[in-house]
Fold this sequence. Notes:
Layout: H1 9-20, H2 27-51, H3 57-68, E1 74-75, H4 77-84, H5 88-101, E2 104-109, E3 112-120, H6 122-143, H7 148-169
Antiparallel strand pairs: 1-3, 2-3
Helix pairs in contact: 2-6, 3-6
Amino acid sequence: MKPERAADAVDRILEQWHRERPDLDVSPMATIGRVRRCALLLQRRLDDTFADFGMSSWEFDMLATLRRAGAPHRLSPTALFSALMITSGTMTHRLQRLEAAGWIVRQPNPEDARSMLVQLSDTGLQLVNRAVEAHVANEHRILAPLEKKELAALDAGLARLLAVLEAGEQ
């Protein structure tokens, strides 16, 4: 027998739909609503940690992508915007902001004189190294109330959902 849990915001929405449209099977709203609500609440908690380092989540994502690339922490703008799934126009604006902050430098591409490479500056590397440590600690705190078995099941289910959704994008 499962212990009862307190009703959440999604339960209240489902109750309203059951009352107003009892003819509809709104059960998918439960899962999708909770995923969306979790994403929103998670983003707020992640943003709080990034703000401690004077950055936004997109700034962290860009610096972390360069950091994960390995030394010398450099990528082409195309590789960077592909990894981040953003448009080239958005990338240009973001690169300008990161460069103005002193967190990246743009350098000529030795393999293609017509293009530039984006590289973490020393300041950017130090910043992202500190921020990623705090970010991982924050993620541990967020997930700490869940048991390992619950986390494994959640991760497996989300991985399956992601695979289905990504297959639909191709």
